[in-house]
Amino acid sequence: MNHMISLSRADLQKMARGVGLRQIRLISGTVMFAYLISHFLNHALGNISMEALATGVHYHTMFWQFLPVAVLFYTACLVHTALGVWALYQRREFRWKAIEPLQLVLGLSIPMLIVAHVVGIRLGQSLYGHEKLYPQAFYLYFVASQYRIWVMLTVLVVAWVHGCIGLYFWLRMRPFFERASPFLLAAAVLVPTLAMLGIYQGGRTTVSDYQDADWRRQELSTQKLGTEAQGNMLDRVTSGFMIGYIGLLGLVLVARGARALIEHRGGMIALSYGSGRTVRVPKGLSVLEASLRNNVPHASVCGGRARCSTCRIRIIGDHTALPEPSPREAFVLRRLGSADPSIRLACQLRPATDLTFFQLFLPHMMSTHVPGKLPARIGEERYLVSLFVDMRGSTRLAEKRLPFDTVFIVNRFLGAVSQAVLDSGGRPNQFLGDGMLALFGLDTTPKEACRQALRAAALIAANVEKLNQFLSHDLHEPIRFGIGIHGGEVIVGEIGYRDHMVFTALGDAVNVAARLQDMTKSLACEAVISDEVRATAEVAEDALPAQEVAIRGRNEPMTVRTVMSTRVLPALVNDKRAVVA
Questions:
Q1: Cα–Cα distance between 442 and 130 in angstroms, integer?
Q2: What is the pLDDT of residues 318-328, one digit of tens each?
Q3: Are 359 and 313 in contact (CB under 8 A)?
Q4: Residues 56 and 45: beta-carbon distance below 8 Å
Q5: Which phi and psi angles does 525 have, rounded to 5°?
Q6: What letter does residue 278 receive in the DSSP assignment?
Q7: Which of 36, 208, 448, 576 is the 20 to 30 A CA-CA neighbour of 488?
Q8: What is the pLDDT of residues 92-127, one digit of tens each?
Q9: Helix/strand/coil (H, E, C) string of 246-266?
Q10: How many Å apart are CA 135 and CA 133, to the nearest integer?
Q11: What CA–CA distance (Å, rounded) separates 518 from 528?
Q12: Based on the domain organization, do 297 and 387 belong to the same domain?
């Protein structure tokens, strides 16, 4: 029994170590978004009738005003708002992707937009027993003060967009997200649209009912709407909250300025990068923030939120004076199995003294854009060489690794492959998960295209070997790959729909290259090359071992050449003895 209790406590302690402000923000935001969905679906019932709205709001209120649920909801609102204000103060750099500052601005604007509605409905009911339901709310918005409807529609859109951005950041790296994203997008568009249409239909009905004296006497009584004095009191409460909230945001901005001034007066520290560059920054900045402020490229796939380890640095020299890792940083480092105290996360480390370090992951700066010309005609038929390359073992790579780290390593692999293709004269064309299709021969002869593809295969091996050396501290086993190369007549042009057109090649030669890449697994080699490519490149017939293989989708077997190590290919292409006379 004691053993079971100790296990339970250990499990709880392990879970608690991974909980930080981000997890609290996520939980509170999820509770609020659930309320938002419930409220929006209730609004959507206005497309049916006012009676449907009344029935829906009855069950909606009964659930959300149930005491435990109400305590949870209002706690989530207060905590989420407080965390938003704290994020405004805490964040020192706003050079991340525009969507993150947008989410913060939208979140901070919601209390100002929603306060009049909350005070008028909820506080009016609690203080004076008002019974403001849909008929009374629609009267206020569509008849008495029509500007309020635009405020309400604005807050609906702002709150919904803010919540959807948060859900996107949470779910985008989940395995199911790619499959679920079309349905989530449909829901993200339909739910608020139906809610706003329901409000419009309910408003139209209310404007029509307002013409009836009996309806006005029944629905607009002082018992339901309150007296003028009560309304003035609620307006004063609303104004007081607005002034207080805006004042709070102003104080946060003043505090940010004061902090910056204190940091500058408190002294500057020097951060020395392994590249030889040194920057001077105020104490209190994280290493990642210092890099952003001084335009020093620094890898950070998750945007500095300690959800990955790609910003990792290794401290050079004494590291005993550094602050202890935060709970979140310690959790990430433990997840990586790192026991080296000189390894730290740049987004979490805020040094107070001079620091020398080097980045474990250099930022990926290479672009796969090729300034060459595209074929003159869309849908042109021509001879191209297709090279398919696929990373082996990416599933095992992701098993004990943070999702962002896996994406980072796969991107570095694809970057190494793309650079090899570009350096050889080809064009990276399609990225398929952890694999890529490259095309050769867009602006050269078939012979040269085949030779370029063979050189690219060798250069891929060299680049991947360098990548393995660079990542040796982080990989349990080196990255391996398989390559398939085939040439033939294909159709090249743009395919897709409207603004989503992609230039690519279609034809049997492309499909065969993909099949050959798959064969490298069963043939236990780095590359499988069609005899067509070997002959067109004018490589000697006995230079590579030949095999007859069956290609799925073809009736006749095909002669291919297996390459155990692609490093031998440049010598075969350039060796005069390998050239057919």
A1: 74
A2: 878 888 888 88
A3: yes
A4: yes
A5: -140, 170
A6: E
A7: 576
A8: 665 555 677 888 889 999 999 888 888 888 888 888
A9: HHHHHHHHHHHHHHHHHHHHC
A10: 6
A11: 9
A12: no
